[in-house]
Amino acid sequence: MSALLVRHEANRLGRDIAVGDIHGHFTRLRAALDRARFDPAVDRLFSVGDLVDRGPESEQVLDWLALPWFHAVRGNHEDIAIRYAKGNPVDQTSYIANGGAWFVTQPLARRPVYAEAFARLPLAREIETPAGPVGIVHADSPVRDWSRLVWSLRLWRAARDRAMWSRDRLQGENADGVAGLRALVVGHTPVEDPVVLGNVHHIDTGGWMQDGRFTLLDLATLQAIPPMG
């Protein structure tokens, strides 16, 4: 079983940057990183998950997961792929409609390769910054106090589902925040511009959509990095 939470020490050489949902658009992501002058020798990139589906380059995900500077959490689209590969009930029509055709059409022997890589992804990451720890999950924290996260994720499937699937905080405009963190960074629900509710930053600005863009959030400053040039 993969770790539920992975902790990262402070990056003392470069920047730590978070990015919203990628959904199989790695060429677009690379262009955004180039504009931000991302330096893989010293910078680290943290993904809020949903690496695959919808875009044309989902099969590149294994190459990205092998990069030493790229760190992702598991999103609901990775969760679906894991369940589909295991033969668990998945509405195939809905899966295909939401971008899963690339996975459904994979050879049977190939599906487990992706599913096992996705299953190794943690549900949460915690990055130390000069101003305090920043957490990352795909959709939302299932707990109000980050110190209870691992306990909650270990005990309850509902907590794991909330981490990967919930839209309640954004839909309810809940600004209560999550104790024990400087900030929590999430994706999952597309927004036109980044939204901050309490200390929760929603950064899926639709970089995978025709009229969207990738938001790159500097975890030291909690400010979006504007395109350069």
How would you characterize this protein structure?
With 229 residues, the chain is an alpha/beta fold. The chain has one domain (5-224): 4-Layer Sandwich (Purple Acid Phosphatase, chain A, domain 2), CATH 3.60.21.10. Helices cover 30% and strands 16% of the residues. The strands form two sheets. A six-stranded mixed β-sheet has the order 1-5-6-7-9-8, with no helix packed on it. The chain has a five-stranded mixed β-sheet with strand order 4-3-2-10-11, with no helix packed on it. Strand 3, helix 2 (61-65) and strand 4 (70-72) form a beta-alpha-beta unit. Helix 3 crosses helix 4, helix 3 crosses helix 5 (111-119) and helix 6 (149-155) crosses helix 7 (157-165). The radius of gyration is 17 Å and the shape is globular. The relative contact order is 0.20. Residues 73-78 form the Serine/threonine specific protein phosphatases domain. It comes from Pigmentiphaga kullae. GO terms for molecular function: bis(5'-nucleosyl)-tetraphosphatase (symmetrical) activity; phosphatase activity. Pfam families: Metallophos.
